[in-house]
Amino acid sequence: MSVMRYEPWSLHRDLWQEMSRALDRMQSDDASSGATADWVPPVDIEEDKERFVLYADVPGVDPASIEVTLENGVLTLSGAREGHVEQDKAERRRVERAHGRFYRRFTLPDTADADNVSARGNNGVLEVVIPKRASTQPRRIAVAA
Fold it and tell me: What is the pLDDT of residue 47?
């Protein structure tokens, strides 16, 4: 005889996790993209002395089809991921991967050098490098005795 573990609250827990995940997606969406995007890629931002670097997760999106624009100090990332082609053979389906248009906007600080921004895609990650202007970088000034 095999022993089977009974968890009476497992369905409740699964429903709670799905609701939490949906609410997290809604709260993390960029407010400026709500009316124009079907999904919003997560972005990491790093800053060092010479530059800012944005890493956007866009798996399944051709880097050549991503539009990166910079206008009036606002960096915009936009593009689209195609949905999965449905097959009539499937009896059940669960879709968690977002598809459709995405749109993200970032206001750049005054220290950003808008003329030398570069972007490249690699393994589903878009990397946008924004150098800082040389005139705004701190420099050490020697004090004469």
Answer: 94
Distance CA 113, CA 1 (A): 71
pLDDT at 117 over 70: yes
In whole angstroms, what is the distance from residue 29 CA to residue 96 CA? Answer: 16
pTM of the model: 0.67
Provide DSSP, 70-96: EETTEEEEEEEEPPPPP-TT-S-----
Cβ proximity of 55 and 125 under 8 Å: yes
Selection from 126, 15, 112 nearest residue 63 by Cα:
126
Question: Reduced to 3 states, what is the DSSP secondary structure of residue 114?
Answer: helix
> Please, which residues have CB within 8 angstroms of residue 95's CB and are 6 or more apart in sequence?
84
Spacing of C-alpha 29 from chain mean position: 10
N-to-C CA span, the chain: 90
- At 3 the pLDDT is 80
Tokens of 13: 């827990």
Structure tokens at 80: 């689209």
